[in-house]
C-alpha cells in the first residue's frame, strides 16, 4: 500500500549498522530513538569494535598552530577521517583498541607537559584522561596493551628504577619486582635488563602475551621476547627455522598479527620474503603462509615491510617509504597516494566507540577536530 511504513527487523538493523564506519554510526544516532538506543548499547559497541579492521596511522604537524594531524589508512576505503590534536605539547607514542597514548613534551613552564606525564584519548569521542606522573622522567614506554581477563588497559614502562606498570584509571604506577621465572637464561636477563623492548617495532599481543623482536646488537638474534600479561614475567620463544641462518639479521624482519595469530616476515637465503604464521602456539609450530619475490637483490627486498595483513591476503606495506596496498594471493600492488607532509608510523589503529569508565574521571578537551581527508590508489600493477 502506498505510504505504508516498512518494518525492518531489529536483527537486520543491528547487522547493517555494526558494519558501518564509526563516523556514520555517530551520525545515525539522530535518526530515531530506537537507533540511538541500539547504538548506545555496550554489546553493539563491542560487536562494532570487533569488526573494525586495523589501519596504518599517518601523522603530520600543521602550521601555524603546531597541531598534530592523525590519518588512519585502511585497505578497503578511499576516504578516511583525519583527526587533529590542537596541542603542540604532545607526542604520539602508542595505539591500542581505538585508544591513543601521548607523552608530554616540555613546553615552557607547563609542568603537566613534562615527559613524566602520559595521556590517553579516544579520538572519535574526544575523551581524554591525564595519567599519574611516572616515578621519573628518564624512562620510556615499552607497551600499551589490554589485559583481557581483567578488562583493563595498561602501560608498561622502563626507567632507571626498573620496569613499571600503570593501569589506566589507577592513581599511581607500580614496579615489577620479579621479572623472570626461576633460573632465567643469561641471554634473557641480558636483553630484558640492558636492551628493553622498544616501540620502534610495537609488540604483537596474542595469547595473552606481548611479543617483541630483540633490539639490534643483542645476542638474541633468533628468538622472540615474550612478556606474559598475567604473570608479568619475561620469557623466550623461537623464530621459524629459516631465520636461524648466518644471513638473517634482525632488521630484516618484523612481527605481525596474521589471522588472529602471531606472524613474522623474514627474508629467506634465496632473497624471497616469507610470511610465517605460528599455527600451534603451545608447540611453537610455524607454517609458511605467503611468499613474495619483488626483486632478485637481497638488499632491495629489505625495503618490503608488511605493516598489517588482513585475513583475505590484502596488506598495507611500507615500500621504501611509500605506502602500498599489496595482495599476497594475487601478487598485485597499488600505491596509495597520501597528502603532502604526512609520514607513516609503526602504529596500527582500530576504530572503537566503546565507553570506558576511566574516562569518567578524565575530561573532554575539544583538542580533537574531525576532518575529512582523502587518499587514492594508483592504477593496479601486477608483479
From TrEMBL:
Protein's recorded name: F-box protein At5g49610-like
Residues of the F-box domain: 8-41
Pfam families reported in the protein's UniProt record: F-box, FBA_3
Source species, domain of life: Eukaryota
InterPro entries in the record: F-box-assoc_dom_typ3 (IPR013187), F-box-assoc_interact_dom (IPR017451), F-box-like_dom_sf (IPR036047), F-box_dom (IPR001810), SCF_F-box_component (IPR050796)
NCBIfam families linked: F_box_assoc_1
